[in-house]
Write a structure and sequence with these properties.
2 domains; Nucleotidyltransferase, domain 5; alpha+beta; 15 strands; 14 helices; 16% strand; 40% helix; seven-stranded mixed sheet
Length: 370
């Protein structure tokens, strides 16, 4: 992620190594290089380098100058549907593949999750939670956040993905279960058990707020040194309040990104959820209540893999536009927000934003004292 800063670090701290470096390559680009003998990078991954101009679709000269490198040291930029035919004969024979079979370069997992859930129209919001989490919105053109809180990826010439990732998702549920409940957390049953107990607490966790920065945080605060907080603990709180506040805190962090996206992308009108958390009916309902928006569950939790297949079909011409994508997406379940519960969450969310440092002091809750 952001190799621009890493290359700058190398130039500053390891100048001898940097001087001998001919090529800078990511894992995906290196694998294609070994398989095909071609050093290429797709638009979506190039968008994450900090060195790519998403408007001209070229390496950004000022960034290269900052890094002290030239574009000859970076992969050739290609579209996400670019085909390579130069598979090394050794691999082709080992895999028993015919000659001239195309390999399509594909895209990054976050962008592909939008395709895989069908969140590709204006107002569609893709929300993913597994170990970590992310919120992404599709747009027909790049609309960067002027405060650098979120990202913009190029998926296709007419489809951009804006959004932000969070470090802290299901990993916190695992941490709490293993360290405070003294039991394992290895699968869907453990996940369900956590949410079942958390549901014993009321919406808003009786005033308990969790800032889920247990592993620092990426969007929107971008601070690896942040620490997690349980704020407002009182004698009437029990472990189920802490457990629900964790889930609500993760959801609030996602909502915080979604609100930022609306500033440049416009309002969201529906949510497409993916990742392991879709198996929890409780969390899906809480998400709908917190976002005040319908939440759709499609036929798969691994939306990125489905999106990769769809992008391959786009490369083959079998999927031509977003309408074609929608035909392959089956919505299995929909959750609707409860306006009364949402109002309770708005009050908790206002306090959450203040505690996270994203709101001015004048907006502090009345019962908050610094």
């Amino acid at each position: 992620m952001t190799p621009l800063t890493k290359i700058c670090w190398l130039n500053h701290n390891k100048p001898d190594l940097a001087a001998k470096t001919a090529i800078y390559s990511g894992i995906k680009e290196y694998i294609f290089f070994r398989l095909m003998g071609e050093h290429v990078i797709d638009h979506s991954l190039a968008s994450a380098t900090g060195m790519f101009d998403i408007h001209s679709l070229e390496w950004y000269k000022p960034a290269l100058e900052m890094a002290g490198i030239t574009d000859n040291q970076l992969p050739i930029i290609v579209s996400t549907t670019h085909a390579l035919y130069s598979l090394d004969p050794v691999w082709r024979e080992q895999w028993a593949l015919p000659e001239n079979i195309p390999f399509y370069i594909g895209a990054s997992d976050g962008c592909l999750a939008n395709l895989g859930t069908g969140a590709v129209e204006t107002g569609d919001l893709a929300v993913t939670v597994g170990t970590s989490g992310a919120v992404r919105m599709a747009a027909s053109k790049a609309m960067p956040d002027t405060l650098s809180r979120t990202f913009n990826y190029v998926l296709t010439p007419s489809l951009y993905i804006a959004g932000g990732p969070v470090n802290n998702g299901g990993i916190i549920l695992k941490w709490f279960t293993e360290n405070f409940l003294n039991r394992s957390f290895n699968g869907a049953a453990d996940f369900d058990a956590f949410l079942e107990e958390a549901a014993k607490a009321p919406p808003g966790s009786a005033g308990l707020i969790c800032l889920p920065y247990f592993m620092g945080e990426r969007a929107p605060v971008w601070n690896a040194n942040l620490k997690g907080i349980f704020y407002g603990i009182q004698l009437h709180h029990h472990r189920e309040h802490m457990m629900r506040s964790i889930v609500e805190g993760i959801s609030f962090s996602l909502l915080q990104i979604a609100e930022i996206l609306t500033e440049s992308q416009g309002p969201y009108t529906r949510i497409f959820a993916s990742g392991g958390f879709v198996h929890s009916t409780a969390w899906m309902q809480w998400l709908a209540d917190i976002f005040n928006c319908t939440v759709h569950i499609t036929q798969t939790e691994d939306a990125s893999a489905i999106g990769a297949a769809m992008l391959g079909w786009m490369a083959l011409g079998r999927i031509r536009n977003t309408d074609d994508i929608k035909q392959w997406i089956e919505i299995q379940q929909t959750y609707y927000p409860d306006p009364a519960v949402h109002q309770l969450y708005r009050e908790s969310f206002a306090q959450y934003k203040f505690l996270s440092g994203r709101e001015a002091t004048k907006n502090a809750p009345e019962d908050f004292t610094a």
